[in-house]
Amino acid sequence: MNKEPYGRILHIIPAQPGWMAVYPSDEDNETSMMLDVVCWALMEDKQGHTFVQGMVSSDSRLDLVYAGSIQNGVMYLSPAQADIWRKEEARHER
To answer: In a designed cystine with 54, which of 5, 27, 28, 67 is the match (CB 3.0 to 4.6 A)?
Structure first.
């Protein structure tokens, strides 16, 4: 029996390079962290509903973790969106 809090993994596919998991900070909706999405997992919860969860590799761990397990409020950005986000972040840091 799988005791994962997010459900069981049905299928995993690699993510295209550039997909990012973005975690907002508690202050003014600024980004506190961005991590590369390594793969996408098709998940099934206890009620049989399916959903997709990004998986990332955090600096402190060598294994993959569910993006949502690091911090609540994760959002995913496509490669194009991530480029725009990075440019905006750099502009605000000046």
So the answer is: 67
Q: Residues of 75-84 as b/e, b for ≥16 C-beta within 10 angstroms? A: ebbeeeebee
Q: CB–CB of 34/87 below 8 Å?
A: no
Residue 1 within any structural domain of the chain: no
Q: Are 34 and 82 within 8 A, CB to CB?
A: yes
Q: What is the pLDDT of residues 42-84, one digit of tens each?
A: 999 999 999 999 999 866 656 788 888 877 778 899 999 988 8
Q: Kind and range of the H or E element at 79?
A: helix 79-93
41 occurs within a structural domain: yes
